[in-house]
Amino acid sequence: MWNRNYVENVQITMAESFGVKGRGKFYEETGVIRDVIQNHLLQVVSYLAMEAPSSIYPEAMRDEQAKVLRNVRPMSVDDMVLGQFRGYRDEPGVAIDSCVPTYAALRFSVDSWRWEGVPFYVRAGKELHTTATEIMVELKNPPQVVFNETAPAMGNHVRFRLSPDVAIAIGARAKIPGERMVGAPLELSVVEHSEARGAGRMDAYERLLGDAMAGDATLFARQDVVEAAWAIVDPVLTCPTTIYEYEPRTWGPAEADRLVADVGGWNDPK
Fold first, then answer.
1. What per-residue string of b and e applies to 36-67 under the rule 16 or more CB within 10 Å gives b?
2. 3-state secondary structure at position 48
3. Nearest to 117 by CA among 73, 172, 67, 66
4. Which of the residues 40, 129, 157, 193 is marked catalytic?
5. Which residue pairs from 140-145 have beta carbons closer than 8 angstroms and sit at least 24 positions apart in sequence?
6. Residue 1 CB: number of other CB atoms within 10 A?
7. Residues β-bridged to residue 244
8. Which of the 8 DSSP states describes residue 260?
9. What is the pairing mode between strands 119-125 and 7-15?
């Protein structure tokens, strides 16, 4: 399992290229943090950062999830940038002076031996450039003993695409053909395209309903896991902070770039 000795940072993006789809009244009561970050994306964080469970028994999995989330530092406004896409206030059911965020970028810290000092960047939003959910684990550069060149800003990584296609990819550097010892980035990937999955493959909610009927609780959050996730985001749910407007079909407000300035910027899903 990876740890702070090998990982530079972790970025998790849940982007949606559409707006609230007529659910303005609902979104006014939730906002992006309650809608997808407190539940979906913190669940992803817990699966990514947890220790190996003692077995595949559902409670063993959820025990490790709870341990991770109890070690995530509660949020502060200094580690958060919120945005609202232009046109959101024109949606039915949305207040004309609404300050509900449709975009959030957050920096999490996991105070554990394995992850101390490794930042987790999580962002989600409506009306973004594309629709995709992706995890990028940036690895630290090894000593430059093969290629006689400056260490690249990025390139060594493990990438997980969760939707709409499913992919696992490893980024590395390979020698450019020729006499010079110069490397170039490449990515080795295994991809399952959504259109190739076949009619028999269940979608996400069908899978959950099937698991519920079968009594398999592995993918369902336990009460202590839910409470730990709420404890992380609760400090920033009611704190007044600036909401930055951003243009639809972009990657959100430019102000969010300050969170990742030290790690070379965001890794936008392609």
1. bbbbebbbbbbebbbeeeeeeebeebbbbbbb
2. helix
3. 73
4. 40
5. 140/5, 140/6, 140/7, 140/8
6. 8
7. 83
8. G
9. parallel
Task: Note the pLDDT of residue 201.
Answer: 72
Reply yes or no on whether 129 is catalytic.
Answer: no
What amino acid is encoded at 70 in this protein?
A: R
Q: Which of 131, 79, 77, 99 is nearest to 31 (CA)?
A: 99
Q: How far apart are CA 216 and CA 66, in angstroms?
A: 18
- Could you give the CA distance from residue 187 to residue 156 in angstroms, rounded to a whole number? 9
Tokens representing 2 are: 């990876």
The whole-angstrom separation of Cα 148 and Cα 150 is: 7
Whole-model pTM? Answer: 0.90
Bridge partner residues of 266 (DSSP): none
Q: Per-residue confidence of the chain (270 residues) as pLDDT tens digits?
A: 677 788 999 999 999 999 998 899 999 999 999 999 999 999 999 999 999 888 878 889 899 999 999 999 999 999 999 999 999 999 999 999 999 999 999 999 999 999 999 999 999 999 999 999 999 999 987 776 666 666 665 668 999 999 888 999 999 878 788 877 777 788 898 988 766 665 567 777 888 888 889 888 888 889 999 999 999 999 999 877 899 999 999 999 999 999 999 998 999 998
3-class state of residue 34 by DSSP: helix
189 contacts 167 by C-beta, under 8 angstroms:
yes
Residue that is written with structure tokens 């980035």 in the block = 185
Phi, psi of 208 (to 5 degrees): -65, -45
